[in-house]
Amino acid sequence: MLVTKYGKKILEIVEQSRSHMTAEQIFEALRQTYPKVVLATVYNNLNRLWEEDRIRKVSVEGMPDRYDRIQRHDHLVCKKCGRLLDVDLGDLTVQLERAAGQAILSYDLKLMYLCEECRNDANKKGM
Ligand SMILES: [Zn+2]
Ligand SMILES: [Zn+2]
């Protein structure tokens, strides 16, 4: 499928970012290069790239979707502030297929935890 100049740049932004950007943050970054781009264009391109398996979408309840490089890795999710941390657990497909007794297409693993900042906050309030 034809990738527009916007699509190309969006893919580049997502692949280079390690901060799990929202569509709005990607929009802000894209505007540095293309000041006239509109947010709807960003959403359309993100959806298409996601449908084509060129980027990942990370959904956490109560948070806007965040976009990530496709390369295999998993996430620790802070239950309080929603911050995502990359964690490499290796490819668990074979173990999961064995446990499920089914061939699986993909999996989406989120490990809930409290990030250091939120843990420190909780400690302060507890004192
Ligand atoms: Zn946190
Ligand atoms: Zn990630």
Question: How is this fold's topology laid out?
Answer:
Layout: H1 5-16, E1 21-22, H2 23-33, H3 39-51, E2 55-58, E3 66-69, E4 74-78, E5 84-87, H4 93-100, E6 110-113, H5 116-126
Parallel strand pairs: 4-6
Antiparallel strand pairs: 1-3, 2-3, 4-5
Helix pairs in contact: 1-3, 2-3
Bound molecules: zinc ion (ZN) (2 copies).
Give the key terms.
single chain; 3-stranded mixed sheet; binds zinc ion; 127 residues; 3-stranded antiparallel sheet; alpha+beta; 6 strands; 5 helices
Q: Name the poorly predicted regions.
A: none
- DSSP strand count: 6
Distance between the termini: 58 Å
What's the helical proportion of residues? 40-55%
Structural class label: alpha+beta
**pLDDT averaged residue by residue:** 93
Sheet-strand content, in percent, reads: 15-25%
Strand order of the largest sheet: 1-3-2
